[in-house]
Amino acid sequence: MKQIAAIFIGGGIAGALDITYAITVHFVTRGIKPIVILQSVASGVQGAEAYKGGVPSGLLGLGLHFFMTILMAIAYNLASKLFPVLTEKPVIAGAAYGVMLYFIMNYVVVPLSLAVPGRPPMGWHILGAMFAHTCLVAIPIALAASKVGR
User: Fold this and answer.
1) How far is 91 from 141, CA to CA, in rounded Å?
2) How far apart are CA 51 and CA 104, in angstroms?
3) Which of 63, 88, 98, 107 is the most buried (most CB within 10 A)?
């Protein structure tokens, strides 16, 4: 039961922090409306049609985003049973997990999805994406696994 709580707490916090960061950064730096950010997530399963889907596509994107962070939390919590260091050193292990998530999401998941290719991240946007995957997603998941899941 503790592990299930850790998954939902860690995945929920990670999802909330990450989507807030994505919406804020892309709106401020590129003027992209929040609904379009959410539709871009939905485009992973809807393709270009997501951008014509209005609020329903945005809500689908939001749901998919949290589904992914919950899956990331499930994977981390399961791995922590095999490798206790993941909960013994959650910040270091979480940071390493974040780097791994960045590469998996950008070079495996997104290319295999129906997502419409956007402007590739350049310069500080790459660092921002790495920061988000590490500090806003993976470390909260690792801390929840360590503090709640034990």
Assistant:
1) 10
2) 24
3) 98
pLDDT of res. 135: 98
Structure tokens at 38: 């959410």
Q: What share of the chain is helix, strand, coil (3-state, %, to 5)?
A: 85, 0, 15
Given a contact cutoff of 8 angstroms between Cβ atoms, the answer to whether 77 and 7 are in contact is yes
SS3 119: coil
CB 22, CB 16: distance < 8 Å: no
Report how far residue 126's alpha carbon sits from residue 107's, in angstroms, rounded to the nearest whole number: 13
Q: Residue 135: CB partners within 8 Å, gap ≥ 6? A: 95, 98
d(CA 62, CA 3): 24
Contact in structure between 142 and 13 (CB atoms under 8 Å)? no
Joined tokens for residue 64: 């998919």
